[in-house]
Amino acid sequence: MMMNYRMFSLGAMALALFVVGAPAFAAKDADEAMHDGKVVSITSSKLVMSNKGDKDNKEHTHKLATDVKVTLDGKACKAEELRAGMKIRVTTTTKDAKVATQIEAIDKNETFANTHDEGRNEDPRHHEEN
């Protein structure tokens, strides 16, 4: 009898943690938007890029967050190490689509190291002219 009570209590606690914790993880993902493209130019504070699949090859600009995370082929690097023409995946917040919080670039690799669902949380504001 005591063993069943303990198992039930443990299961109830695990369920409660899942129910309370899951929205926090979902909120983080819901607050992010990603889009793919290519580097046109980049400095330590600004990225100019073109969108993947954009027939007009329109360019738009992102300010880099002070704590931006930049990777090249899955390894941390500085923004200035990226070169024009490299494929990139840019993450912004939905609150400010003009500020890049993460840039994943690939040069030698075929796919992004931190593969996300293609177009997940795609933000149409990224396709607007600056």
What would you note in describing this structure?
With 130 residues, the chain is an alpha+beta fold. The chain has 2 domains: 30 residues; 96 residues, Copper binding periplasmic protein CusF (OB fold (Dihydrolipoamide Acetyltransferase, E2P), Beta Barrel). It is built from 1 helix and 6 strands; from the N terminus they run αββββββ. It has a 5-stranded mixed β-barrel.
Describe the structure concisely.
By secondary structure, the protein is an alpha+beta fold. About 20% of the residues lie in helices and about 35% in strands. The protein is built from 1 helix and 6 strands.
Q: Any descriptors?
A:
130 residues; alpha+beta; disordered C terminus; 2 domains; single chain; 1 helix; OB fold (Dihydrolipoamide Acetyltransferase, E2P); five-stranded mixed β-barrel; elongated
Head-to-tail CA distance between termini: 68 Å
Instruction: Tally the beta strands.
Output: 6
pLDDT under 50 segments (min length 5)? 19-27, 117-130
Number of domains: 2
Strand order of the largest sheet: 1-2-3-6-5
| Shape by Cα distribution | elongated
CATH superfamily of the largest domain: Copper binding periplasmic protein CusF
What's the rounded overall pLDDT mean? 78
Order of helices and strands: HEEEEEE
Task: Reconstruct the topology from this structure.
Blueprint: H1 2-30, E1 32-42, E2 46-51, E3 59-72, E4 75-76, E5 87-93, E6 99-106
Parallel strand pairs: 3-6
Antiparallel strand pairs: 1-2, 1-5, 2-3, 3-4, 5-6
